[in-house]
Amino acid sequence: MPSFQDQFFSECLASEIKSRFHQVDHDHAGQKRLYFDNAGGAFRLKSVLDRMVELDAIPDNIERVHTVARHLQDVQARGEADFRCMLNAKGGSIHASQTASSVMFDMVRAISENVPGTNMVTTVLEHPSAFDAMSLYAQRSGKELRVAGSNPHTGGIDVDEIVRLVDQDTCVLNVICASNISGAKLDLEAIVQRARAIKPDLYILVDAVQHAPHGLIDLQRTPVDGINIAPYKFFGARGSGVAWLSDRAAVLPHHKLHGKDAGFWGLGSGTPWQFAAMTEIVSYVCWLGERFTDSRDRRDLFASGMTRIELQERALLSRLLDGGGSVRGLRHIPGVTVYLDYPDLSKRDLIVMIGMGDHDSSQVVLEYERRGVVVYQRTAGSIYSKRMLDSFNISGGVRISPLHVHTPEDIDRFLQVTAEMAGALA
Questions:
Q1: What pLDDT score does 5 carry?
Q2: Do residues 426 and 331 touch, judged by C-beta distance below 8 A?
Q3: Are 143 and 37 contained in the same domain?
Q4: Average pLDDT, stretch 206-210?
Q5: Same domain, residue pair 90 and 58
Q6: Are residues 335 and 192 located together in one domain of the fold?
């Protein structure tokens, strides 16, 4: 397999990218560190937080008719347009709430309570916000919950394993874009096509929280009925979850003020900074995309930027696993085990899980922190990972999740620390 390491950003561009984010090379107190836990959070764009402070300082109610209120309405409208640009979505409705988990519960409820069927299909690798929502509403509606198993070889879910569970009585299919344990990407296009070949009017929901910052989403190629993201994992801010719903899903009965349009999902006054954050995220990706395309179309620019992010992260993943120059990669460091390793890196987001001998992953994480590196443990004792790890027959490990903002030098530093630790713990 190719190393992909000829796809790194230039040093000049990499430096400019880092300058647009807060606290890439140090923590909030100025302490130097490597933050490799971007699957649990993510670096924040400076422009997002600037706009958040600017807009949240405005006292005006967005539902008024005066000049400042109309400005806030324009901010929201542009943010909604940019969210559609991010997804390449046409029409439909946008549902903004405090978390991506809450909007997933809302979407599952609307479909499960109002769409005929005797079963609901999901996968064992879903985040609890999707899996537990499906479990709850399957139970409440008296439907069978069918769960597709994982593939320990690929770290993902086989398309066949999912579609074999779909039939004419399936109410809804809910799948994740990529595993937040292994980084394995599901073949969403094949899943949608084959599931709809079985039931053409099947409702499909997608959890894109983990994958959205790492790869391009195109709802024209994968027409689903609902998809959510968490802006705080996509260079944005905490306190925001956003979903898009298809025209038919949006008008299903849901929590709504009676006077609002049938497809309206907002409750209460809007929060303009949520939408401004979306615009800043898309604008950043477009800024990056400008360097690799002559098009001035916003979706083309966004697609170009996300493609370059994906290539940069694939190069970082290759460096992380196989090393470069005199630095050994994780696959070659004695005492380190790469769990759920898979040779085709094009089927992976930038997530790796490792173990160090028989050492407890929580203690390994603390040892990394002593050396200025932040990673995270995924253990069977956590509600956020037990079901997934059990499916792989793994008790736990250390999850490593850099971001495109990082450089090969950052990866090399991490590998040097890892080699030192593995030797010390042997």
A1: 82
A2: no
A3: no
A4: 97
A5: yes
A6: no
How big is the CA angle at 275 (ends 81 and 186), to the nearest 5 degrees?
Answer: 70
**How far apart, in Å, are the Cα atoms of 19 and each of 14, 16, 25, 45, 181?**
9, 5, 10, 9, 29
Please enumerate in sequence order all residues whose Cβ is within 8 A of that of 274, keeping only pairs 6 or more positions apart, or say none: 79, 96, 231, 240, 242
For the segment 285-308, what is each residue's pLDDT rounded down to a tens digit?
999 999 999 999 999 999 999 999
Crossing angle (nearest 10°) for helices 298-322 and 408-425 = 30
Residue length of the chain: 426
Instruction: Return the beta strands (E) in 214-303 as ranges.
Output: 226-229, 241-245
Going by C-alpha positions, the residue among 149, 127, 130, 126 that lies closest to residue 138 is 130
Number of domains in the chain: 2
What's the CATH code of the domain at 240?
A: 3.40.640.10
Residues 6 or more apart in contact with residue 18 via CB below 8 angstroms: 24, 25, 405, 407
Q: How many other C-beta atoms are found inside a 10 Å radius of the C-beta of residue 361?
A: 21
Q: At what angle do helices 298-322 and 67-87 cross, to 10 degrees?
A: 50
Query: Please, are residues 48 and 22 in contact by the beta-carbon 8 Å criterion?
Result: no
Are 377 and 362 in contact, with CB atoms under 8 Å apart? yes
Rounded-to-integer distance, Cα 5 and Cα 172, Å: 40
**3-class state of residue 417 by DSSP:** helix
Going 93 to 98 to 100 to 102, the CA torsion angle's sign is negative
Mean pLDDT, residues 96-108: 96
**Strand partners of residue 119:** 144, 170
CA distance 208 to 145: 21
**Domain containing residue 319:** 11-44+312-420
Q: Quick one: pLDDT at residue 3? A: 63
Q: Among all chains, which residue has been given the structure tokens 């380190």?
A: 336
Residue % of the chain over a pLDDT of 70 = 99
Q: How many CA atoms lie within 13 A of 121 on its CB side?
A: 26
Residues 6 or more apart from 301 whose CB is under 8 A from it?
A: 285, 286, 289, 290, 293, 295
Please determine, for residue 1, whether its predicted confidence score (pLDDT) is greater than 70: no
Q: How far is CA 357 from the centre of its chain?
A: 30
Residues 316-350 pLDDT 10s: 999 999 999 889 999 999 999 999 999 999 999 99
Burial of 201 per CB tally in 10 Å (0-12, 13-18, 19+):
exposed
Query: Minimal CA–CA distance to 120: which of 100, 146, 96, 99?
Result: 146
In degrees, rounded to 5, the angle at the alpha carbon of residue 14 between the alpha carbons of residues 351 and 397 is: 15
